[in-house]
Amino acid sequence: MPILSRQRLLLIVGGLAAAGLSCAEGSSSVEGAGGTPGSAGMGSGAGGVTGAAATGGGTGRAGTTGSAGVSGTAGATGSAGTTGTAGGPGAAGVTGTGGVTGAAGAMGRGGGAGTSSTGGRGGTSSGSGGGGGVSTGGTRATAGAGGSGAAGRAGTSGAAGSTGAAGTTGAAGSSSGDQLIGWASVSGLGLNTTTGGSGGPTTTVTTCSALRTAASQSGAAIINVSGSITCDNVVISSNKSLIGLAGAKIVATSGTTNHLLVIQNVSNIILQNLVVQGAGVSSGNKSGGDVVHVESSVHHLWVDHLDISDGDDGNFDITHDCNFITVSWTKFHYTSGSRAHRFSDLIAAALGDTGTYKITWHHNWWATNVDQRSPRAHEGSGGIHVFNNYYSEAGNSYCIGVGANAIFLSENNYFDGVNTPFYMTPDGETGGQILSKGDVFHNTTGNQTGTGKGFTPPYPYTLDPAANVPALVQAGAGPH
């Protein structure tokens, strides 16, 4: 195809403009052609038409300005290109539905209330409810409710929750628990402490003959008593543990004047978890037997969690220079108040006895129908320690009898509705003393005043508050 000269091209385009032709619309606007040169060749070429906007599109581009025509008569002004229809506004996007507002997290429940600990031996302490954790996006959990019971621990803080309230303090268990405390734990007379039949064989007895045989054999042995056994004159040799299984009971033969359990000139004995009941002869006199009779240089004896009653002479008598003895968590009583000789516990029967009698009595209960000797001692210069005992022997003559040369230390005992907590024996029994520290006297009559300096125990122990003693001892004394 021949190439047109620039002059010829301008003439052709100018001719088209003079003929009133316009550029067709396309999908996009085209540039308007310049006007045909006038005769004078002076006019400016007509502007190109504005391309119509593409459907829904943007504004068409403006036509480019035509080149100036050659001088001559001005050509007619080219018609302006039709303005492209503006594209309509795009439909607004549908407004996105707002996300559903997350429901607030449910209020976390506080920790449950801690359970109460049973007051008792070593009572455990209950914890309080822990603080509830905070749910995601939720409200703060409520504090856990305070637990009731023994010395409640403070509720732990929940994660971002409020701190649980501390549990209320329950009646704490006794600090003594089931531990061996007192003189029986002290080294002396060739023994370091009291171990009973530990290390020996274990046997279970259900009859009087089997009990007598097992108790009197030589060597270490643990003897379990099962059921109720009627017997008397059970002689116990050294290195024995006589332990009651649940419900175990040893009852004296009816009408006997023998002692029931006899511990004489031996050492290293443990009696534990037994009901031991005397013959209960209604007249009662000191020529009868004791329920537990301890005599003649016995040492390292631990009597623990027994129920001892109805001794014709005494419930538990200790005579003729016996030492390193602990009596703990034991109940002493009589089933009838009509008996004449309700003298529970005597130390040193003979006035000529000058034994030291190192004995500890703690957490014991002198209860119904005991008249006196709770305990009573003449002699005992080694130191007789009575602490955290409960006295409820209403109608009695006296509780603790302080005789010749007996040295007592009385601490945090609770005397409840009794007569004469401290009986200082009269003429002929001089030198006795009792130092009272922290004792409580509730509805008592008679002498409540101690005298003397007492002594300092050579073993560790922790006193329970006297106010707690009634509940502790009533719950804990006797077999468990």
Describe the protein's architecture and organization:
The chain has 480 residues and is mainly beta. The protein has a domain of 294 residues: Pectate Lyase C-like. It is built from 3 helices and 25 strands. The strands form 3 sheets. It has a 17-stranded parallel sheet that branches. Strands 4-7-9-11 form a 4-stranded parallel sheet. Strand 1, helix 2 and strand 2 form a beta-alpha-beta unit. The longest helix has 13 residues. The N terminus is likely disordered.
Record keyword descriptors for this entry.
480 residues; mainly beta; four-stranded parallel β-sheet; 25 strands
What's the arrangement of secondary structure elements?
Layout: H1 6-18, E1 202-205, H2 208-216, E2 221-225, E3 228-231, E4 234-235, E5 240-244, E6 249-252, E7 261-264, E8 267-277, E9 292-295, E10 299-309, E11 316-319, E12 323-328, E13 331-333, E14 346-347, E15 359-362, E16 365-366, E17 376-377, E18 384-387, E19 390-391, E20 400-402, E21 407-411, E22 414-416, E23 422-424, E24 433-437, E25 440-442, H3 469-476
Parallel strand pairs: 1-2, 2-5, 3-6, 4-7, 5-8, 6-8, 7-9, 8-10, 9-11, 10-12, 10-13, 12-15, 13-16, 14-17, 15-18, 16-19, 17-20, 18-21, 19-22, 20-23, 21-24, 22-25
